[in-house]
């Protein structure tokens, strides 16, 4: 059977790369730019390097700094409007997943006659976009290299996958040095969760996504605890930045599924950072899915130095899951109980998870009862 390797957009990678934003924007034909960021990123001064680079390239810009967690639809609309009023022909997103997703979605709205309702319509389609450049300030989402922007529909409270391309990514590990320890952990494990779900995705899995996913497991497992303890460790931050981007490229082909449907439910219901949900569910997804592609997970075990007692697919996935849970706890990832959750809170995510279409994209399609059982297991095994 043949398969397609999608390579979505060029990536400029390396320490200090953000200082080349002006040159890249010029090459992309951008003459007036809308910068999108959240207030924290602006406060930390992370937009300064990009502003200086645009100044040097003679590209005027305006900054929208109202991005909120989970990219609510109204922020996307407001940013698109600001870009339009400024006459922007390019959008530069600087931030974590919410910002990059909002920026990609705004590049669909900016300068078009598409409104909020059309943007969120459940008909996946590519539309014309103004050029965008995505500059991540966390290592986790890989959103700078995917064709989907997750936007929160504030009327239904569901997260909606909007088809919106990244045109160019600038991945500069130095932009991640200020990420605090907890966010370093949960964003890093989010990258691992992308690799994990790409491996057991039923939608266009291919050798390329497997190669990327294996590498993400290796890099995240070995470098995440180093970066958490030593935030300005250049080697660790560089490894996590490439892992995050590779994770995005893996699931651009082989989409995430059940784990992300569960994490989206937790985020929508309780407004926790996306990475917490992804981290908690990842071991359970391995326990549920790995026997559908056991050879891949025997390889994963080797890459993360997990010694297995058996290669029996009915047993070894549980050993990998336990090993990962122990590592996450050792690194300092809080448990659901630490954050005040009760078992019932997780069970209450069943319906949302079932209604997320992506919950069926994995090698196994869970029933509603199985979803409830898995959510309960996520809670039980993490407390
Ligand atoms: Fe994710």
Structure description:
With 383 residues, this protein is α/β, with parallel strands linked by helices. The protein folds into two domains: 11-176, Rossmann fold, CATH 3.40.50.1970; 181-382, Dehydroquinate synthase-like, alpha domain, CATH 1.20.1090.10. Helices cover 51% and strands 10% of the residues. A six-stranded parallel sheet has the order 1-8-5-4-2-3, with helices on both faces. A two-stranded antiparallel sheet has the order 6-7. It binds fe (ii) ion.
Notable traits:
383 residues; alpha/beta; Rossmann fold; Dehydroquinate synthase-like, alpha domain; six-stranded parallel sheet; two-stranded antiparallel ribbon; globular; binds fe (ii) ion
Provide a brief overview of the structure.
The protein is α/β, with parallel strands linked by helices and 383 residues long.
């Amino acid at each position: 059977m043949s398969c397609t390797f999608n390579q979505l957009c060029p990536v400029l990678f390396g320490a200090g790369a953000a200082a080349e934003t002006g040159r890249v924007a010029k090459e992309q034909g951008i003459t007036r730019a809308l910068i999108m960021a959240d207030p924290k990123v602006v406060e930390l001064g992370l937009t300064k390097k990009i502003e200086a680079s645009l100044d040097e390239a003679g590209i005027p810009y305006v900054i929208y700094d109202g991005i909120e967690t989970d990219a609510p639809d109204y922020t996307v609309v407001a940013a698109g409007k600001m870009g339009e009023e400024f006459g922007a022909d390019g959008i530069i997103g600087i931030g974590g997943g919410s910002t990059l997703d909002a920026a990609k979605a705004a590049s669909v709205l900016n300068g078009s006659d598409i409104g909020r309702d059309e943007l969120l319509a459940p008909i996946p389609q590519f539309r014309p976009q103004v050029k965008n450049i995505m500059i991540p300030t966390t290592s986790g989402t890989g959103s700078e290299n995917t064709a989907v922007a997750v936007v929160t529909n504030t009327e239904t409270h569901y997260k909606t996958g909007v088809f919106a391309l990244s045109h160019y990514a600038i991945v500069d590990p130095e932009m991640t040095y200020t990420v605090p320890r907890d966010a370093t952990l949960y964003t890093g494990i989010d990258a691992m969760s992308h690799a994990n779900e790409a491996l057991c995705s039923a939608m266009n899995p291919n050798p390329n996504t497997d190669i990327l996913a294996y590498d993400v497991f290796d890099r995240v497992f070995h470098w995440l605890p180093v970066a958490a303890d030593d935030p300005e460790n250049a080697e660790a931050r560089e490894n996590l930045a490439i892992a995050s981007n590779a994770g995005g490229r893996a699931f651009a082909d082989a989409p995430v599924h059940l784990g992300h449907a569960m994490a989206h439910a937790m985020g929508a219901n309780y407004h926790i950072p996306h990475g917490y949900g992804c981290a908690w569910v990842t071991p359970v997804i391995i326990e549920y899915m790995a026997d559908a592609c056991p050879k891949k997970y025997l390889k994963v075990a080797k890459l993360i130095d997990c010694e297995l007692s058996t290669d029996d697919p009915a047993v070894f996935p549980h050993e990998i899951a336990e090993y990962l849970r122990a590592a996450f706890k050792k690194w300092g990832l809080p448990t659901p109980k630490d954050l005040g959750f009760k078992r019932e809170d997780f069970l209450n995510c069943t319906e949302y998870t079932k209604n997320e279409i992506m919950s069926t994209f994995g090698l196994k399609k869970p029933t509603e009862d199985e979803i409830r059982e898995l959510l309960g297991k996520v809670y039980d095994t993490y407390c």
